[in-house]
Amino acid sequence: MSQRGCVRCGIRVAARNQREAVVRSWAVRLSGRTSYAHMYRLVDQLPLCAGCLEEMPVIGERICEQCGRSWEHQGQQNLLESRALRCRDCRSIGESALGGNRGLLRYDDWGKDLLGLYKYRGDERLADFFGKLLTLAIYRYFRSGQFDYLVAVPLHAKRLSERGFNQMERVAGQLSRAIGVPVQDALTRTKETAKLSQQTGREVRIHSMQDAFAWKGEAAHPKKPSRILLLDDIYTTGSTLRACAQAIHKDETVKSHIWSLTIFR
Question: Would you say which domain of life the source belongs to (predicted)?
Fold first, then answer.
């Protein structure tokens, strides 16, 4: 990191010892399922200065067991309900093909501009940064060898044409190279929907995503039970990821165990 500029603020770090203590602190906090040494290397690779790294809004240990939502940053009512293990939103959802979700960072001002720069202004260099964040997340939450395939949430053809690239396909490629799990181009988006940020209300978002995806068929996947990890940038209501999981689940030739991993929650 000492020879590069911070992707968030542009500050060039002159000496390693300026961020060494911060890297060590995060490595200790995140090394639950992997070794401290491995997590230290992953954190140290993040192209962030000491200040931005220290302020990184990592989700704490107390989370909803279903969606990965942080209990610490919810209202008082949710804090009172935390013994239920699942948040109120998750308890209101019926049976789902999605086993659960985990996210690394809270979606706040720290990451909003960076994600917007990547998704909407085409700064593809940030794929490496977000890939590193997902690598941290997968080693934090899951066991080695827990998944057979990575599947990025696809864009509708019109949205893909507007952006010129699928941001999560690039990030999935980075994660795949880091952990040795292949990416499958297994889903297609069959329904054009408004951006979730432009849809008001949880119910509207959930309804808009119904039947929005389809499984690509046998060519995309072998006829055997598979453990699939869906990848997306943000988990908001979870409607997108649940719709993806349902599209996979509908294919009778494949009986899959499906989870999702997101950069932000």
Answer: Bacteria
- Domains of the chain plus CATH, in order, are 1-56 (no CATH), 96-264 (3.40.50)
DSSP string, the chain: -TTSB-TTT-PBP--GGGTHHHHHHHHHHH-SSS-HHHHHHHHHTS---HHHHHT--B--S-B-TTT--BSTTS-HHHHHTGGGSS-HHHHTS---SEEEEEEEE--SHHHHHHHHHHHTS--TTHHHHHHHHHHHHHHHHS-TT--SEEEEPPPPHHHHHHHSS-HHHHHHHHHHHHHT--B---EEE-S----GGGS-SHHHHHHHTTT-EEE--GGGS-SS-EEEEEEEEE-SSSHHHHHHHHHHHT-TT--EEEEEEEEE-
| pTM listed for this prediction | 0.90
> What confidence score (pLDDT) does residue 203 get?
75
